From TrEMBL, chain A:
InterPro entries: ABC_transp_permease (IPR001851), BCAA_transport_permease (IPR052157)
Membrane topology: Multi-pass membrane protein
UniProt-recorded name of the protein: Branched-chain amino acid ABC transporter permease
A molecular function GO annotation: transmembrane transporter activity
Upper lineage: Bacteria, Pseudomonadati, Pseudomonadota, Alphaproteobacteria, Rhodobacterales
Automatic annotation (TrEMBL), chain B:
UniProt topology in membrane: Multi-pass membrane protein
Domain of life, source organism: Bacteria
Record localization: Cell membrane
Signal sequence, start to end: none
Gene Ontology CC: plasma membrane
Protein keywords: Cell membrane, Membrane, Transmembrane, Transmembrane helix
GO molecular function, one term: branched-chain amino acid transmembrane transporter activity
Lineage: Bacteria, Pseudomonadati, Pseudomonadota, Alphaproteobacteria, Rhodobacterales
Name this polypeptide is given: Branched-chain amino acid ABC transporter permease
Length: 327, 358
């Protein structure tokens, strides 16, 4: 019985980890649908957003290390702190600016290239942003606190202890993250379905040329989609950053989002969510049951191997559109 | 004025199909070979060997390997680091289990083992294509590195979890272990690179190479004209992994001396080698060399300028290096998707007309 409760707890924690993966995967799907770009840099965007947020919040001087090295000064902080809400708004603004720059400097020049070239370009972009984030804000591990509740939820523990005789340990942050992610998904779906811009976005996703011919500006849509993806990255960055500190490993979470996408299918928003949940639960349960037998740390590779095995049987993923090839 | 084919008559198909059809190119190639084998080993010192030449030679092998798979056969792989780890751990197990056998045989066997592993992970490529495959090869990367970290048999139950290369000799000279001299390191890597590059060049212009390129350009069309995708794709995986395995074995045994799977063969290695072939040129032997040279030299150069001349802290220089590498990748993809190899080709075209362009 206890074993079962343990497993249930692991399952719930897996679900919540899965929500986090879905959050990153969502950014991928948005960009992929609208511009056909498989954006490897999504995870680094999250890292960059989190770094910028911490930097603004704590009043760090951007490029302080570079300026110090060049001019021999000793700058670090402006000496003020910015309230969380304002800092988040400012960071969102920076992400929009970044989206604009990416469109202007990179994507615009690569229109019509093969998908794999675009993918490699985003790998380059990821390296650039990673370096820039470190040069701008320093590479040390930072703690991020925007006032989200943390720690083990007492209410859940006492409630389940009363009902089942077994107290479930759930992190309050995870519960909040799940709710915020659900809200975000609902908002995105509503945006895509019911607003003018959302409709334009779906039109672009369906057919670039047809969309262009009815007067939709491709460039505007792309900047908009990258901005939204930047915003999603910001949310993901806040969640992961609060959970485990703002550090380089944050960008590796993006890599985890790749098998999530493979599983769910690249073009499907529900797919990203379901894929994330499957991977999250799967890797937690696998680690719980099989992990101890083979030495642990199976979370490093389980998601990829699962996606690999799955793809062999269904190459387009769970909800992806069927791949039709012609000569 | 000097660089042209005028007066360079060919009377057989064999002459016409050779790798360097222009006489000046051929002589240049012989001169470079002679210098690399005879002159450089006399003057090489530990700094040049460790910082520039040995890593260049080893990464050139790895880049050649990945170029076979990605550049010629069109299968994008992000598992290079994992396959290099297979080569390194295989050579380590062979060296410690059979000390009396020559290290050269061990390195070749390590390549063979890696080829087998590569074929295994290449099997899904028959169903999965494009960047789906790229992500699927990540499974190889993470699973293999995890395996070498978690199963103590692979590192002979050493306390640190690291593998350390014992001293092995070729013709009486130590080529691995702490007492290895700079020329010995350099020469063993050079010999492997020379033989492998020669082999790859000849493979890629034979039947096998043409099959690979047909698969790359469009696999369904290739299948219709009679190329068997199973053998073509798997042979590309096998040849590529063989080279990458040898590169991994040399990287561990000759260059690093001691290695830890996570640090030496992480995901960053995969990207590094991928960048080499993007910058150098996909589907080009010269491109593999150029890309490896570029990405080995760039950090050394930047470090000398930023840390040496400006006196900036090392970690800042490392971050700026990341930015520059990233920006260069994007720049190359926008301006010249065929890489340095294409630039070199354009230079040669210009040179043929110079100084009378009409």
């Amino acid at each position: 019985m206890d074993q079962l409760f343990f497993a249930a707890e692991v399952f719930l924690n897996g679900l919540m980890a899965g929500v986090m993966y879905s959050l990153v995967a969502l950014g991928f799907v948005l960009i992929f649908k609208a511009s056909g770009v498989f954006n490897y840099a999504q995870g680094v965007l999250a890292l960059f957003a989190a770094l910028t947020l911490v930097g603004i919040q704590q009043g760090q001087v951007p490029f302080a290390h570079l300026i110090n090295a060049m001019f021999g000064t000793n700058l670090h902080h402006f000496g003020w702190t910015v309230p969380s809400i304002l800092a988040i708004a400012l960071t969102a603004g920076i992400m929009v600016l970044l989206a604009f720059l990416i469109e202007k400097l990179v994507l615009q020049h690569l229109v019509g290239q093969e998908p794999i070239i675009l993918f490699m370009a985003t790998i380059g972009l990821a390296y650039f942003l990673e370096g820039m984030g470190d040069v701008m804000w320093g590479a040390d591990i930072k703690t991020l606190d925007v006032g989200l509740p943390q720690g083990i939820s007492d209410t859940v523990e006492t409630m389940t202890a009363d009902w089942l005789g077994y107290g479930f340990f759930l992190d309050r942050l995870d519960i909040w993250a799940t709710m915020i992610a659900a809200l975000l998904v609902a908002a995105l779906v509503a945006f895509a379905q019911y607003t003018k811009q959302g409709r334009a976005m779906r039109a672009v996703a369906d057919d670039h040329q047809a969309a262009l011919s009815v007067g939709i500006s491709l460039r505007f849509i792309w900047v908009m989609v990258w901005s939204i993806a930047g915003f999603v990255a910001l949310v993901a960055g806040i969640m992961w950053g609060t959970k485990s500190g703002v550090q380089f490993s944050l960008s590796l979470i993006a890599l985890k989002a790749l098998p999530v996408l493979m599983l769910g299918g690249f073009t499907s928003i529900p797919g990203a969510i379901v894929g994330g949940l499957i991977i999250g639960v799967g890797e937690k349960l696998f680690e719980f049951w099989i992990g101890p037998l083979v030495g642990g740390a199976t979370e490093n590779w389980f998601a990829y191997v699962l996606a690999l095995v799955f793809l062999v049987f269904r190459p387009q993923g769970l909800f992806g559109e069927r791949i039709i090839e012609r000569v | 004025m000097f660089y042209r084919e005028a007066g360079d008559f060919k009377t057989t198909y064999r002459d016409d199909g050779q790798t360097f059809p222009i006489r000046l190119d051929r002589w240049g190639y012989y001169v470079i070979l002679a210098a690399a084998f005879l002159v450089v080993p006399i003057y090489i010192d530990a700094y040049w060997a460790n910082a520039v030449l040995v890593p260049f030679l080893i990464y050139a092998i790895a880049a050649l390997g990945l170029n076979v798979l990605t550049g010629y056969a069109g299968q994008v792989s992000l598992g290079t680091g994992g396959f290099m780890a297979v080569g390194a751990y295989a050579v380590y197990k062979l060296m410690t289990s059979f000390p009396e056998v020559s290290i050269v045989i061990h390195i070749l066997l390590a390549g063979g083992i890696t080829a087998a592993v590569g074929v295994l992970f290449g099997l899904p490529s028959l169903r999965i294509k494009g960047f789906y495959l790229a992500v699927a090869t990540l499974a190889a990367q993470f699973f293999l590195v995890w395996l070498f970290n978690k199963v103590p048999w692979f590192y002979n139950y050493s306390a640190s979890g690291q593998i350390t290369a014992p001293t092995r000799r070729v013709f009486g000279y130590a080529v691995t272990g702490p007492t290895t001299s700079a020329p010995a390191k350099y020469l063993i890597c050079l010999c492997f690179l020379f033989v492998l590059a020669w082999a790859v060049r000849n493979l890629t212009r034979g039947t096998l190479g043409r099959k690979w390129m047909a698969i790359r350009d469009m696999d369904i069309a290739a299948e219709i004209i009679g190329v068997n995708p199973l053998t073509a794709k798997l042979s590309a995986f096998a040849v590529s992994s063989f080279l990458i395995g040898i590169a991994g074995a040399l990287l561990f045994a000759v260059y690093l001396g001691a290695a830890d799977a996570n640090e030496a063969f992480g995901i960053n290695k995969s990207f590094l080698v991928l960048f080499m072939i993007i910058i150098g040129g996909l589907g080009s032997i010269f491109g593999s060399f150029a890309g490896a040279a570029f990405l080995v030299l760039l950090p050394v150069l930047l470090k000398n300028i930023l840390v040496g001349s400006f006196g900036w802290p090392t970690n800042l220089a490392a971050h700026i290096e990341l930015m520059i590498v990233g920006a260069l990748i994007v720049f190359f993809l926008i301006v010249e998707p065929h890489g340095l190899a294409r630039l070199w080709q354009l230079t040669k075209e210009k040179l043929r007309l110079w100084p009378f362009p009409h």
